[in-house]
Design a protein that fits this description.
By secondary structure, this protein is an alpha/beta fold. The protein has 2 domains: 6-37 and 86-213, Rossmann fold (3-Layer(aba) Sandwich); 40-82, no CATH class. It is built from 9 helices and 8 strands. It has a 6-stranded parallel β-sheet with strand order 5-4-1-6-7-8, sandwiched between helices. It has a two-stranded antiparallel ribbon with strand order 2-3.
Length: 216
C-alpha cells in the first residue's frame, strides 16, 4: 500500500483551515453549480462572432444599433441552453453544509437574471440564494472585474479575508484575486494551470465538503 506524502497531508490540512474559517461564499453558476450545456462555439457562430472571442466583451465593443439585435439573440440562446443544464455533483450537499454553518451564499454570473432563475429552479437549488445576493451581468461589471464581489462584500459588510469565490473558469479566479478574496478552482477536467490565481484547487465539490468538515 502506498503511504500518503507528508507534504500532501500538510497542504490538505492547511487548505482545510484556510476554508473552514470563512463565512461568505460566492459561486459562479455555469460549470460550477451546474453542468453547463452551453455550446459557445455554436453561440458565436449564431452571433456572427470570431472563434474564441469573449462574447459579452465582443458585443459591448459593437455600435449600439448593431449590437442590440445580437443581445436579443444571445438572451434567447442562453435561455435555450439554461433548459438543458443539470446540477453539478455534490452541489446540494455542499450548499447544505454551508447553510448549516450559517454561511452567507451568493452567485456571481455573466448570465442574465431570467436565465439564472430558470437554471436554479430547474436544478432545485434556488432556495439557498437570496435574490439580493444574485448578481448577473446587468447588476455589475461582469467578471473578470472584481466589481460584483466588491458589491457583495459591501452588502454583507464583510471582509475579503472572510470570503471565498468558487468557480471553474479563469474569469472567476481573476475576479476573486482582484477583490482579495480566497479563490477555489473547481477543475473537473485537469487540463489548465491557473495556479497564479488559485488558492485551493479541487477536482470535485465533495473535496470542499471534506475541507469544511476537517480532513479525515
Amino acid at each position: 500500500m502506498k503511504l500518503p506524502n507528508p507534504q500532501d497531508i500538510d497542504r490538505a490540512v492547511a487548505e482545510s483551515d484556510f476554508l473552514q474559517r470563512r463565512r461568505h461564499w460566492i459561486f459562479d453558476m455555469d460549470g460550477t453549480l451546474t453542468v453547463s450545456a452551453h455550446d459557445f462555439d455554436h453561440m458565436r457562430r449564431e452571433l456572427g462572432l470570431a472563434p474564441d472571442v469573449p462574447i459579452l466583451e465582443a458585443l459591448h465593443a459593437l455600435p449600439e444599433t448593431e449590437a442590440e439585435p445580437l443581445w436579443e439573440m444571445l438572451n434567447e440562446l442562453e435561455m435555450y441552453y439554461a433548459g438543458k443544464a443539470s446540477i453539478m455533483l455534490g452541489v446540494s450537499e455542499l450548499l447544505q453544509c454551508l447553510f448549516e454553518r450559517d454561511c452567507r451564499l451568493a452567485i456571481l454570473t455573466r448570465n442574465t437574471m431570467p436565465v439564472v432563475k430558470h437554471t436554479l429552479e430547474a436544478c432545485g437549488i434556488e432556495h439557498y440564494f437570496a435574490q439580493d445576493y444574485i448578481l448577473d451581468r446587468d447588476s455589475c461589471i461582469p467578471k473578470p472585474s472584481p466589481d460584483g464581489i466588491n458589491q457583495l462584500l459591501g452588502m454583507w459588510q464583510a471582509e475579503a479575508d472572510d470570503t471565498v469565490m468558487v468557480g471553474d473558469y479563469l474569469y472567476d479566479l481573476e475576479a476573486g484575486r482582484g477583490a482579495g478574496v480566497a479563490t477555489v478552482h473547481l477543475d473537473t477536467r485537469g487540463d489548465v494551470d491557473w495556479s497564479r490565481y488559485t488558492d485551493v484547487r479541487v477536482e470535485s465539490l465533495g473535496e470542499i465538503i471534506r475541507y469544511l468538515e476537517g480532513i479525515r
